[in-house]
Write a structure and sequence with these properties.
The chain is α+β, with helices and mostly antiparallel strands and 285 residues long. It folds into two domains: 209 residues, Transmembrane di-heme cytochromes, Chain C (Fumarate Reductase Cytochrome B subunit), CATH 1.20.950.20; 56 residues, no CATH class. 52% of the residues lie in helices and 18% in strands. The protein contains nine helices and nine strands. The strands form three sheets. It has a four-stranded antiparallel β-sheet. Strands 1-2-9 form a three-stranded antiparallel β-sheet. Strands 7-8 form a two-stranded antiparallel sheet. A hairpin with a 7-residue loop joins strand 1 and strand 2. The chain starts with a strand and ends with a strand.
């Protein structure tokens, strides 16, 4: 579908073509993932606030050393928020460890505007988290099933051998650093960096996050005790779950930044209507 044609000279003629980039199933599961991930993040931070420390192995009591801790300390009249990783501590008053709730300074790992619910309620946070965790898993299975049956995963997300060549990857890294994005027919498909990022999320981060989440469940421990052996205990699983979720948040932030920098309207239209505009130059445009 050609939307418009400009310029009179054949060699400089430019046309804008709308192509079909995303199927209805891909678009629907994408937006359901957005909803699920937003609720999972907010409710997960609510759960973390109940015990804002990360341990490894079978340790996890209050007196055990923590790999990461977010909290508040100091005199009751003048507390300070902090984040401690290993032996290094950073003052984070006002955001992490100590933030204002209803106008009062309140010790809590993450502020109320980041958690679901906003007030401290572990039971409610767990209910939100568990419901949307299963919704997220079911939605992901639908996407994977469709991707396999339709060939979407093989055709659009599996990188070709030539795309994995060091020279090709380096060129794409340099182009991204310079904010040079594919144009014309090259914009029809994902580039190698996008494919590798999506594969890492689909085949690495998401399964790991789901499995570590299941490992923290006493019921799943009883049914599948091998999960504890795989991850070295529930505290290790909790730490891996937190790190994996943090990496997923980083992926989403980079993804949104690339969407904005490479053309927000065009990218949003492709994920809402399925149509993506590319520009062609030349006498055949």
């Amino acid at each position: 579908m050609i939307e418009e044609t400009t310029d009179l000279q054949p060699e400089t003629r430019v046309s804008t073509v709308l192509i079909r980039r995303h199927s209805g199933v891909t678009r629907l599961t994408h937006w359901l993932n957005v909803l699920c991930l937003a609720v999972l993040l907010a409710s997960g931070l609510q759960i973390f606030n109940a015990y804002p420390r990360l341990h490894w192995g079978q340790y996890g009591a209050d007196a055990d050393p923590a790999m990461l801790e977010i909290g508040a300390r100091g005199d009751p009249g003048k507390p300070r928020g902090f984040v401690r990783v290993g032996g290094a501590s950073v003052d984070t008053t006002g955001v992490l460890g100590l933030s204002k709730a209803d106008g009062e300074w309140t010790p809590r790992a993450f502020p109320d505007w980041l958690t679901l619910p906003s007030y401290q309620d572990l039971a409610a946070g767990r209910r939100w988290h568990f419901f949307f965790a299963w919704a997220f898993v079911i939605n992901g299975l639908i996407y994977l099933g469709y991707g396999l049956l339709s060939g979407h995963l093989r055709r659009d997300l599996a990188p070709a051998a030539k795309e994995l060549a060091p020279r090709h990857l380096w060129r794409e890294i340099v182009d991204h650093a310079r904010l040079r994005f594919p144009s014309g027919d090259d914009a029809r498909r994902y580039n190698a960096l996008q494919k590798l990022a999506y594969v890492a999320v689909l085949a690495g981060l998401l399964p790991l996050m789901a499995l570590t989440g299941l490992t923290m469940s006493p019921g799943m421990n009883a049914a599948f005790p091998v999960l504890l052996d795989i991850f070295g205990g529930r505290q290790s699983a909790r730490t891996i779950h937190f790190v994996t979720a943090s990496l997923l948040v980083a992926f989403v932030l980079v993804h949104v930044a690339m969407v904005v920098l490479s053309g927000p309207w065009n990218n949003m239209r492709s994920m809402i209507t399925g149509r993506y505009a590319i520009r062609r130059k030349g006498p055949d445009a």
